[in-house]
C-alpha cells in the first residue's frame, strides 16, 4: 500500500468498549493512554525487529470510540457479532413481523461479520426474494477482477 521502501504494520488488541468510553470523557488522559499503548506495542515490536522504533514515521491508534465515531456501529463493534460457539448457533431474524417485503442483510444478521459475510448475506436475501417471487436466481460471472 505504500510507495518506496515503507510499509504498514497493524497490531490488533482485544479491549473493552466501556473502558474507552469512560476514558474519552477525559480527553488528555484518553490521548495519553493511546500513546502509552502505542509505545508498549512498539517496545514489543522492537524485541522482534531491533531498530524499528527509530524508523517509525507515523502511528495511528484506533479505539472502540474511534470505530463508533466513524461508523456509529453498536458499541464500536467493527465486525458485528463475535464468532463464538453461542453466536454461531444463534438464529437472527432477517424480516420484521408486520412489515412485508422488508429484509435485513449485513454484519448484524450473520455472526462473524466482515465484508465477505455481509456480501454473502445480501446474496442469500436476493436468493430468498427470487424464491418468493418464483424467479430463477441467476448470477453473472464478471470475471474474478484479480481475486481468487
Ligand atoms: C476499521 C475497520 C476495519 C475493518 N476491516 C475489515 C477487514 O479487513 N476485512 C473485513 O472483512 N471486514 C473488515 N471490517 C468490517 C466490515 O467493514 C464490516 O463487517 C462490513 O462493512 C459490514 O457491512 P454491512 O453492510 O453489514 O454494514 P455497513 O458497511 O456498516 O453498512 C451499513 C450502511 O447503512 C447506513 N445506515 C445506517 N443507518 C442508516 C439509516 N438509518 N438510514 C440509512 N442508512 C443507514 C450506513 O451509513 C452504512 O452505509 C472492518 C471494519 C472497521 C470499522
Number of DSSP strand runs: 0
Total domains, how many?
2
What fraction, in percent, of the residue positions are helical?
40-55%
Distance between the termini: 19 Å
Largest sheet: none
SS strand fraction: under 5%
Which structural class best describes the helix and strand composition? mainly alpha
- The number of helical segments is 6
Spatial extent as radius of gyration: 21 Å
Low-confidence stretches: none
The set of bound ligands, ions and cofactors reads: flavin-adenine dinucleotide
The arrangement of helices and strands along the chain is HHHHHH
Shape: elongated
- Averaging pLDDT over every residue, what do you get? 91
Layout of SSEs?
Blueprint: H1 17-23, H2 27-48, H3 52-55, H4 64-71, H5 85-88, H6 114-132
The structure holds flavin-adenine dinucleotide (FAD).
Residues 67, 71, 78-80, 106-107, 113-116, 118 line the site of flavin-adenine dinucleotide.
Amino acid at each position: 500500500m505504500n510507495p518506496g521502501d515503507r510499509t504498514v504494520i497493524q497490531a490488533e488488541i482485544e479491549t473493552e468498549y466501556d473502558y474507552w468510553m469512560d476514558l474519552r470523557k477525559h480527553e488528555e488522559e484518553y490521548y495519553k493512554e493511546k500513546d502509552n499503548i502505542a509505545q508498549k506495542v512498539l517496545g514489543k515490536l522492537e524485541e522482534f525487529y531491533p531498530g524499528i522504533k527509530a524508523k517509525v514515521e507515523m502511528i495511528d491508534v484506533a479505539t472502540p470510540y474511534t470505530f463508533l465515531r466513524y461508523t456509529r456501529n453498536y458499541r464500536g463493534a467493527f465486525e458485528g457479532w463475535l464468532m463464538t460457539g453461542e453466536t454461531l448457533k444463534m438464529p437472527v431474524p432477517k424480516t420484521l413481523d408486520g412489515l412485508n417485503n422488508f429484509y435485513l442483510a449485513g454484519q448484524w444478521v450473520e455472526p462473524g461479520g466482515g465484508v465477505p459475510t455481509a456480501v454473502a448475506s445480501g446474496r442469500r436475501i436476493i436468493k430468498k426474494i427470487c424464491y418468493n417471487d418464483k424467479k430463477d436466481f441467476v448470477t453473472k460471472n464478471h470475471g474474478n477482477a484479480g481475486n481468487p
